[in-house]
């Protein structure tokens, strides 16, 4: 597993998605389209990403 994940919101989390998916995007720190956040790579974050995988792009970041 990578050390960190860069998560970018590429589709709107407001229109045509369930409220819990919008809340998940907000909990990750994603507010608007093209917002990027860096989160630690752990099972909890991976589960949140899985829930909104149709709205985000994810890149693994290795730290040395």
UniProtKB/TrEMBL annotation:
Residues passing through the membrane, by range: none
Position of the signal peptide: none
GO cellular component, one term: ribosome
InterPro entries named among the record's database cross-references: Ribo_uL30_ferredoxin-like_sf (IPR036919), Ribosomal_uL30_bac-type (IPR005996), Ribosomal_uL30_ferredoxin-like (IPR016082)
Ribonucleoprotein in keyword set: yes
CDD domains reported for this sequence: Ribosomal_L30
Pfam families (UniProt xref): Ribosomal_L30
Domain Large ribosomal subunit protein uL30-like ferredoxin-like fold: 5-56
Highest taxon, organism lineage: Bacteria
Keywords: Ribonucleoprotein, Ribosomal protein
Tagged with keyword Ribonucleoprotein: yes
Family, similarity comment: Belongs to the universal ribosomal protein uL30 family.
Assembly and binders: Part of the 50S ribosomal subunit.
Name recorded for this polypeptide: Large ribosomal subunit protein uL30
Organism listed in the record: Kribbibacterium absianum
Gene name of the record: rpmD
């Amino acid at each position: 597993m990578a050390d960190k994940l860069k998560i970018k919101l590429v589709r709107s989390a407001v229109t045509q998605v369930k409220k819990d998916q919008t809340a998940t995007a907000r909990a990750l720190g994603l507010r608007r389209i093209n917002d990027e956040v860096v989160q630690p790579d752990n099972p909890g974050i991976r589960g949140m990403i899985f829930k909104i995988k149709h709205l985000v792009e994810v890149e693994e970041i290795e730290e040395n």
